[in-house]
Every structure is written in structure tokens, then in C-alpha cells.
Specification:
about 375 residues; mainly alpha; 2 domains; elongated
């Protein structure tokens, strides 16, 4: 089943680090147990862990059915003790590796789940900006892309390119903002916003790699606009590069044409002869240019579909990229534009009117006696 080895690694990482089981709280609305049934995000940590352990059992049956049942039983038995749970999970992890080592795609998908989860959850505000930026260094991202490529059919078709491009978007954003991130990490609220965005990003990447229909549909119009901007920037870069490399050829053509016209005009008499010669030279140049353009068009005819595929891949990546919404200076905005990074949209009218901590919870119902509900 596509996504199962990745999901197995992801769940193992969640169980080993309980913080990762609380990710749904970032999206959870205020909960009133009197008038609402709880969502998973509203459950106590112990109950969430029980659900994760049930998911773990199903995934082991799909991916690593040869792992001894007592390994999973030991994990379930240790669920109430953090130290014992960590030891049991390490033992189960080694058994999973032994089971999957003979299948390159399966073990790559499993390790991808572990590593991508670590990328989003190992950085913390307290440990400094280095813990964040190191996760997106060249070697780290290259390793993630290698696992994506090696996972093959165990992840949905096309998801490796989408996640790889989304990782590049984060790298480019960090490159532009790295001076301010390093300087102001502990002196501002930017660090909290960055880590929160990274946690939300983890859910989006997870959805793509398990084939969630909500993230595998058509890209949004905003994503297409960003992709089209990238195509225009690429075309401009190619044009400028060609002009810089072959300016002498264009200049030579212009000189030759100018010389031919000068000779024709100087050796002919009469306005009709001059204009006839000019039109003849112009027609010859036009026919030659048309032939050249036709040849170029044929040479580039196969490029169109590849450009379209690249643009679609770019749009799909932006559709699932969740960058922090930090204030950017004019210079930073120009640098982001040159790097092809879309500025995240912030809706202050919706997101900044009421802080999350002060949201009003619906009142509990009052019993018929008039006494408040306990």
C-alpha cells in the first residue's frame, strides 16, 4: 500500500516523541465537553497514544508482518511509562529495520518517515536558530531527497518531486532571511512563528506522502500564479544569458545588413531602384529569419511539454508549502522575488483580531434547576 512504510516511520517518531502527537492542537478550535464530542486533538495525551498504537499495529501488519508480536506487545505494555516506552520502541525499531533491510523501497520509505518528522520537530525555540537552519542545510535536504527518490512505489506517484521542490522553497526562504533569523531568534516572536509554521508544514507534507485527496488535487490559483512567475523569471534569465554570450553575433548580423544596405544605396540611382533594392534585401532577411525561427521552433517544440510539466510541478509544490508569515523589508522582498519564493499571505483581519488564547468558548447549558453545570 502506497505510503504505508512512510506512515510506519512517522507513527514511530510520534510515539517516541510525545510532542508530535499534539500537532492537531494547532488547528483545534475551542472545545466545550458539555456541548461537543471531542476530536482527536481534544483527547488527553494517553488516549491519543492509544490511537497511535492501534495505527502502529495496523501498519506493522501491512509493512513488516514478520516482526514478532511480542515486540508490539512490549510497546503497548510500556505505554504508561516514558522510560520503558522509549526502550521498547527502540527494540521494535531495530526489529523493523531487520525486517525491511532486504527491500530497498520499503526501508527507504520507513526512514523517510522518521527523517522528515525529525526535520519538522527537532528545531526548538529554546535551542536556538542553529537547530532550525541545520535541518535545511544542503546535505540534510540532499539526504531527504535521496530517501524520496529511493522510496519508489511506496509513496504516491509524483509526491517525491512535490516534497523535494517544497524543501527547496524552504531553503530559499531561509537563505534570504538567515541574517535576521540568526540575529533576532531569541529577541523576538519570530522564532515562535517559524517553529509553528514548520509544525504545520509537517502535516501538509505528511498528507502528500500518504496520498491524502485534499492535497493531491489541482493546485490553487495562487499556486499557479507563483508558478507562472517562476516561468517568466526563468525565460528572462535565459534570454539575458543568451544575449550576454552571443551579443557579438547579433552585432555582426546588424553590421552585415547595414553594410549591404549602404552599398546598395550608394550604387543605385533613382528612388524606385533604391526602394526596390531595400525591399529585396529586407525580404531576403525576412525569409532567412523566418527559416531560422522555423528551425528554432521545431527544435523547441518538444520543450513546451517539459516547461508545462515543470510549471505544474512548481504549482503543486507551492500548493503544499507553508512558510512563516514574517514581516519582510523591501530588500528581503526583492531577494525573495529573485529567488522565486512566494510571500506567504497573511489575513490580519482574520488572524490578528482575537489572539488564540482569548477565544471565547461556547457557554455550557444551564440545568432546569437554575444551578450552573459543574
Amino acid at each position: 500500500m502506497a505510503g504505508s512504510p512512510f506512515s510506519l516511520g512517522w507513527v514511530m517518531a510520534q510515539l517516541f516523541d510525545a510532542r508530535r502527537l499534539t500537532i492537531d492542537e494547532l488547528f483545534s478550535p475551542p472545545f466545550n465537553p458539555v456541548v461537543q464530542l471531542p476530536l482527536v486533538a481534544d483527547l488527553e495525551l494517553a488516549r491519543r497514544r492509544e490511537l497511535a498504537l492501534a495505527d502502529l499495529g495496523d501498519l506493522l501488519g501491512d509493512v513488516a508482518s514478520g516482526v514478532p508480536h511480542e515486540k508490539l506487545d512490549a510497546v503497548k505494555a510500556a505505554a504508561g511509562n516514558e522510560t520503558q516506552l522509549a526502550a521498547a520502541l527502540k527494540d521494535l525499531h531495530q526489529a523493523i529495520l531487520d525486517q525491511l533491510v532486504a527491500d530497498d523501497q520499503q526501508i527507504a520509505g520507513y526512514q523517510l518517515g522518521l527523517m522528515l518528522s525529525d526535520t519538522c520537530w527537532l528545531p526548538t525555540v529554546a535551542d536556538g536558530a542553529e537547530t532550525f537552519m541545520v535541518m535545511f542545510q544542503r546535505g540534510q535536504v540532499a539526504a531527504l531527497k535521496a530517501w524520496l527518490a529511493s522510496a519508489g512505489d511506496t509513496i504516491p506517484a509524483g509526491s517525491a518531486g512535490i516534497i523535494g521542490h517544497s524543501l527547496d522553497n524552504w531553503q530559499n526562504w531561509i537563505e534570504v532571511n538567515s541574517p535576521s533569523i540568526s540575529k533576532n531568534w531569541k529577541a523576538s516572536t519570530d522564532a515562535t512563528q517559524i517553529i509553528k509554521s514548520l509544525h504545520i508544514q509537517s502535516m501538509t507534507w505528511h498528507s502528500v506522502l500518504v496520498g491524502d485527496p485534499q492535497t493531491s488535487g489541482a493546485p490553487s490559483m495562487t499556486a499557479w500564479l507563483q508558478a507562472s512567475s517562476a516561468v517568466v523569471r526563468a525565460a528572462r534569465t535565459v534570454t539575458v544569458s543568451v544575449l550576454r554570450r552571443f551579443w557579438w553575433l547579433l552585432l555582426l548580423i546588424a553590421v552585415v545588413i547595414g553594410g549591404v544596405l549602404a552599398i546598395v544605396i550608394s550604387n543605385l540611382h533613382g528612388a524606385s531602384q533604391v526602394w526596390t533594392s531595400i525591399l529585396w534585401v529586407g525580404g531576403s532577411v525576412g525569409i532567412s529569419g523566418a527559416g531560422l525561427m522555423s528551425a528554432v521552433g521545431k527544435a523547441l517544440s518538444g520543450v513546451g511539454s517539459e516547461v508545462w510539466d515543470a510549471a505544474r510541478g512548481d504549482a503543486e509544490a507551492w500548493n503544499v508549502t507553508w512558510l512563516p508569515t514574517l514581516r519582510q523589508s523591501r530588500q528581503q522582498r526583492r531577494a525573495l522575488d529573485r529567488a522565486g519564493v512566494a510571500m506567504p499571505a497573511l489575513n490580519p483581519g482574520l488572524e490578528a483580531v482575537i489572539p488564540p488564547a482569548t477565544l471565547i468558548v461556547r457557554p455550557a447549558p444551564v440545568p432546569a434547576s437554575g444551578s450552573p453545570t459543574p
